């Protein structure tokens, strides 16, 4: 193998690699994860050159990243870097594969926040919302996701034109790039482009709120402001405390929406389409605990029916 060791900065090599091999070849949401790995790489080793990259330097890099992340997240970071550096080794740009036998570390896992609310808890939360009649705020955002199950970035990207009042639905065909400077971007996958049926109360409220707004501008993002999901989660945490329920995240409201639909008897296929999942397998995997609980209830119904046949 010809040795032509590169002295290029590591983060610059990685940036060029993801643009060459990943851009347009993976889903947009996946590509953003490579972009995020690049940002971390640039932050952690801004002056590291390729000819200095070896197993020790790579392990130090992983260890530094692991200080602020759990092991699973560090493993993802490693996987997003590994292919690029293996390519560099095979192309003769570095003398050894720095990722070989890498040790994955990370912070201890903390107890996960509650993933979803039951119907009683959701009603208690909704009663705490401050919903002005003449302008949108983050409480209206919480209200919207609770009733639609939209993803965080999908809800941020909604414009007045996305509300089909005649069809009684919301059209989802884009998301908001809140992690990298704002602006519209494609949805997570093709299945995420969908129409979500909504109730008359939501339509009535938003028809009033949207009057006079730019039909093509995002409702919740003003003047291209920087949005952090931690900001909304902080507000949601305050609302949960007031309601006397366990804290939940904004993504947990999406889980709540789906869970309540499943418990009420809505089919997995319908829930999957409403959430914009790529397949029902995603829905089944995410809500396996609920599906198993429903299956147990169905089994009890079957046994009860069979018993009645003997009477």
Automatic annotation (TrEMBL):
Which residue range or ranges hold the Tyr recombinase domain?
112-304
| UniProt KW Mitochondrion keyword | no
Give GO BP annotations, semicolon-separated: DNA integration; DNA recombination
Keywords, in A-Z order: DNA recombination, DNA-binding
Superkingdom assignment: Bacteria
Q: Tell me its family.
A: Belongs to the 'phage' integrase family.
What is the official name of this protein in its record?
Answer: Integrase
Instruction: Specify the species.
Output: Ligilactobacillus salivarius
Q: What is the lineage of its organism?
A: Bacteria, Bacillati, Bacillota, Bacilli, Lactobacillales
């Amino acid at each position: 193998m010809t040795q032509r060791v590169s002295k290029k900065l590591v983060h610059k090599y990685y940036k060029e690699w993801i643009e060459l091999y990943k851009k347009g070849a993976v889903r947009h949401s996946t590509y953003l994860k490579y972009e995020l790995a690049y940002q971390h790489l640039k932050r952690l080793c801004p002056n590291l050159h390729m000819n200095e990259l070896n197993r020790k330097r790579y392990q130090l890099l992983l260890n530094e990243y692991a200080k602020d992340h759990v092991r699973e997240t560090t493993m993802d970071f490693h996987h997003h870097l590994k292919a690029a550096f293996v390519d560099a080794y095979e192309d003769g740009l570095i003398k050894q594969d720095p990722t070989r036998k890498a040790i994955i570390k990370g912070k201890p896992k903390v107890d996960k926040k509650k993933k979803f609310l039951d119907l009683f808890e959701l009603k208690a939360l909704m009663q705490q919302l401050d919903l002005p009649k003449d302008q949108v705020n983050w409480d209206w955002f919480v209200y919207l996701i609770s009733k639609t199950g939209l993803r965080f970035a999908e809800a941020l990207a909604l414009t007045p034109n996305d509300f089909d009042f005649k069809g009684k639905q919301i059209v989802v065909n884009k998301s908001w790039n809140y992690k990298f400077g704002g602006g519209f971007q494609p949805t997570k996958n093709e299945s995420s482009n969908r129409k979500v049926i909504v109730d008359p109360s939501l339509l009535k409220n938003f028809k009033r709120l949207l009057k006079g707004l730019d039909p093509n501008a995002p409702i919740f993002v003003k003047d291209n402001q920087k949005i952090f999901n931690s900001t909304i989660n902080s507000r949601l945490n305050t609302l949960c405390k007031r309601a006397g329920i366990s804290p939940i995240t904004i993504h947990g409201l999406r889980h709540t929406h789906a869970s309540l639909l499943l418990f009420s008897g809505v089919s997995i296929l319908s829930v999957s389409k409403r959430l914009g999942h790529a397949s029902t397998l995603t829905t089944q995997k995410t809500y396996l605990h609920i599906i198993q609980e429903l299956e147990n209830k169905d089994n009890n119904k079957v046994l009860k029916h069979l018993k009645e046949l003997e009477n």
